[in-house]
Design a protein that fits this description.
Elements (H helix, E strand, L loop, with lengths): L4 H9 L5 E3 L6 E3 L3 E8 L4 E6 L9 E4 L2 H10 L1 H5 L7 H15 L3
Antiparallel strand pairs: 1-2, 3-4, 3-5
């Protein structure tokens, strides 16, 4: 027994939310729950930057706003693998300290 035309129409109109994998904890989440990281070229080695609007060009990586995820990504050098090249992850370390300060001292 096949579903009626109403059921088929409702299946076609449902949209799934984009899923991305966090480079820190490796769990899959909705894109809206993650922040995109991108590369900016400053000198010889590109730097990892936070791309909150997800609008910067080029390859991106996704991470939770959780200090534990950022710390795990830095420890495992996940940004280097995600971007498939050597990168300067110092801006990611700075973002980690900002996130840690925000979680300790919520404004």
């Amino acid at each position: 027994m096949s579903p009626g035309p109403e059921a088929e129409a409702s299946v076609r109109t449902q949209r799934s939310t984009p899923q991305r994998t966090c480079i820190g904890c490796r769990s899959v989440s909705d894109r809206s729950a993650l922040v995109r990281l991108a590369l900016e070229q400053h000198g010889d080695v590109p730097s990892v930057v936070v791309d909150p609007r997800a609008a910067l060009p080029g390859r991106g990586a996704w991470i939770h706003r959780d200090p534990a995820c950022v710390s795990a990504a830095l420890k495992r050098k996940a940004a280097h693998r995600a971007f498939r090249r050597g990168v300067d992850d110092a801006p990611l370390s700075e973002w980690l300290s900002t996130l840690t300060n925000m979680s300790v001292n919520p404004a």
